[in-house]
Design goal:
It is a single chain. The protein contains 1 helix and no strands. It has 45 residues and is mainly alpha-helical.
């Protein structure tokens, strides 16, 4: 079998999000935190 030649490893440049963009984590927290608070507040005691 012929030896396999891999291309040289080039790490991808880290792309910083542009200022003003909201990360997906923020959207997840904005949805889940009020839901958890509502469930805790409306739970029958």
């Amino acid at each position: 079998m012929a030896p396999v030649h891999y291309p040289a490893y080039r790490p991808h440049p880290v792309s910083h999000p542009a200022p003003g963009t909201t990360s997906p984590v923020t959207y997840v927290l904005l949805i889940t935190v009020p839901a958890i608070v509502a469930v805790a507040a409306l739970r029958p005691r």
